[in-house]
Design goal:
By secondary structure, the chain is mainly alpha-helical. The protein has one domain. The protein is 68% helix and 0% strand. It contains 19 helices and no strands. α3 runs parallel beside α9. The longest helix has 31 residues. The protein is globular and about 55 Å long. It starts with a helix and ends in a 9-residue tail after the last helix.
């Protein structure tokens, strides 16, 4: 990669990227797949999981053909990037944990692992086929388009009894809120390439607020404060306008917030309340300490942890606790090392590359969100996103030690 390419401005690097591309297609799938079961398989959720798994594998076929031949990044160059090395280490630990997994069906657990690995493989192939800047930005734009589909589904569906968007079983409000927060930050990064991304980000931010996903809303507000205070590409007038729009949205939704507060405070020990979460944390911690080094294995949580009354938890509702339960101390150390290495890589280039600031903002988002919520298999910061961002940062700045010339 030439020094001229490294010196391209953000606008120059994004003007030839589009959501209507192979990378955009993959990104759109990543953004909207959470609503597949809700839309088509509520009567047979297992079939929905199978369809999602098959779609992951089917996407590999056209992407592999698309990436065939010489590319912009070789695998051995990718392996010099520490966050990507740790992504592979996490996938390796997940796979090996199937040897001691207490999942009800190890074959199903292997299917979930295969889907997670396929996500990483898709991104790796796309970045091999296209220059990092174009491939990453197309992936982001596609992801935002997919999250817009998710937002449309959420708005069009009946609200839950507790006033939140979505469905507790098939389209969790917390998943809606987090996906919208992630997409809104992508839009903020892409705003320099067109006003449509600013308006799209605003729509996703409003959907986040309407989801009433408490942790995601709090995390997004804090991340926005961090992002706007550090950004050199957002004018002061724009920052003031964003703050004013935030206060206006809060005023508009104040009545809904008040009604939800009444419902929330009278919910007893439901899992969505703090007392319900504490019960899950204490139970999970006690069972995790039974196997502290390597954990209970992939997809073991629901098979091992008992139901809390009528509620059956899918995960520990805390990222580090979930990793401790699943992979033990080894898993916790690995995840902390992965997030730490990504933070250090982003920090080294933050002054030169807006992507460095975005990465730190996303890390802050997932760390705060991870205090009360997480994912069943993947990390809160999806492995595919870590792969895409870390390899793109390394490719944009080849003079750094992450990738040799």
């Amino acid at each position: 990669m030439s020094t001229a390419t490294v010196g391209l401005s953000f606008a120059d690097r994004t003007m030839d990227s589009t959501a209507f591309s192979m990378a955009g297609l993959v990104g759109a799938y990543f953004g909207c797949r959470v609503c597949i079961t809700f839309l088509f398989f509520q009567t047979d959720p297992q079939a929905g999981a199978v369809v999602s798994f098959v779609l992951n594998l089917l996407l590999l076929v056209p992407v592999a053909f698309y990436a065939a031949g010489p590319g912009s990044m070789r695998l051995r160059d990718s392996l010099r990037v520490w966050p990507f090395r740790l992504v592979l280490a996490f996938l390796g630990l997940s796979l090996v944990s199937l040897l001691w997994s207490e999942a009800q069906s190890v074959s199903i657990a292997l299917g979930y692992w295969t889907a997670m690995a396929a996500d990483v493989a898709l991104v790796l192939l796309l970045l091999h086929a296209e220059p990092a800047s174009r491939g990453l930005h197309s992936l982001m734009k596609g992801y935002v388009a997919g999250v817009c589909v998710l937002a449309l589904v959420a708005w069009a569906s009946p609200a839950m009894a507790d006033l939140r968007l979505g469905d507790n079983e098939f389209l969790n409000p917390n998943a809606i809120g987090f996906e919208c927060a992630f997409g809104a930050l992508f839009c903020q990064y892409l705003a320099s390439s067109g006003a449509r991304w600013k308006w799209t980000g605003a729509v996703l931010a409003i959907t986040l607020v309407r989801s009433l996903s408490k942790t995601s809303i709090i995390a997004f507000v804090l991340v926005e404060c961090f992002y706007l205070s550090r950004s050199r590409t957002v004018a002061r007038g724009t920052k003031i306008a964003i703050a004013g729009a935030g206060m206006l949205v809060t005023a508009i939704f104040w009545g809904l917030f008040s009604a939800y507060y009444v419902v929330y405070t009278n919910a007893g020990t439901e899992a969505e309340t703090l007392s319900g979460r504490i019960g899950i944390w204490l139970t999970t911690l006690g069972m995790a300490l039974e196997k502290p080094w390597l954990g209970h294995g992939l997809h073991s949580f629901r098979a091992v942890v008992p139901a809390f009354g009528v509620f059956e938890a899918w995960h520990a509702h805390n990222e580090l606790l979930q990793q401790f339960f699943t992979y033990g101390i080894v898993g916790v150390v690995l995840v902390m090392a992965l997030y730490g290495s990504l933070f250090m890589q982003a920090r080294r280039v933050a002054a030169k590359e807006p992507l460095g600031l975005l990465t730190r903002a996303l890390l802050l988002l997932v760390v705060i969100r991870g205090l009360t919520d997480t994912e069943r298999f993947d990390l809160s910061f999806p492995l595919w996103a870590i792969t895409a961002i870390s390899l793109s940062l390394a490719q944009m700045h080849p003079l750094r030690r992450e990738v040799a010339s």
